[in-house]
Design a protein that fits this description.
It is a single chain. The chain has a domain of 86 residues: 2-enoyl-CoA Hydratase, Chain A, domain 1, CATH 3.90.226. Helices cover 35% and strands 15% of the residues. The protein is built from four helices and five strands, in the order αββαβαβαβ. The longest helix has 35 residues.
């Protein structure tokens, strides 16, 4: 069954039939997509105008009902349907003093435990703790945050020393900046 071919003689190429299942590409109609986009924008604008007109009609009655004393809450099963009310809070006239965190060195001087807020003297206290304990490797912190300026200074110190920061209970606001500045970041499972 094997036939020998003459040298230099190649069989003619076999033509490949067009694939019958392959669909021809359809031309895109970009005008239809643009039309839909313009129509959607128009509908949104009309809807926004309608909602704005509806709310501006109610603003006169809402401004008249605002008083200096808070109203009694309406029970949920009062049976009447009430309109939504805007409750305005009071502005604080005093600044809350943020206390500095408590810092304790433990585990043979390799771990610094910080509990509390990032106060005005936080960076100074952290620098003193770092200077007093050159073998410090990790900071365990629980803080709700505090002042940005002293927190950013402390974050730079953490970054320069390549410390590990581990969050114990919670970490919010500026505490997250301290955690993010660490060379290695850790979290307790319940944090």
């Amino acid at each position: 069954m094997h036939t020998e071919q003459e040298p230099g003689h190649e069989p003619p190429p076999v033509p490949r039939p067009a694939h019958p299942l392959r669909a021809k590409p359809t031309p895109r109609r970009s005008g239809l997509t643009l039309t839909r986009l313009v129509l959607a924008v128009g509908i949104l604008l009309v809807l926004a105008w309608f909602i704005g007109e509806r709310n501006s009609g109610n603003s006169d009655s809402a401004q008249a009902s605002v008083s200096a004393e808070p109203e009694a809450p309406v029970p949920r099963n009062a049976g009447t349907r009430s309109e939504a009310r805007v409750v305005q809070g009071q502005k604080s006239t005093t600044l809350r003093q943020v206390e500095d965190a408590r810092m304790q060195v433990g585990e043979q001087g390799t771990v610094l435990r910080i509990e509390g807020s990032v106060g005005r003297n936080f960076a100074t206290q952290l620098q003193a703790a770092l200077d007093a304990n050159p073998s410090l490797q990790r900071i365990d912190i629980t803080s709700g945050g505090g002042y940005a300026q002293s927190g950013l200074e402390a974050a730079r110190m953490i970054r320069r020393r390549n410390l590990i920061v581990r969050v114990h209970s919670h970490c919010a606001s500026m505490c997250v900046g301290l955690w993010a500045a660490a060379a290695q970041r850790q979290m307790e499972p319940d944090a």
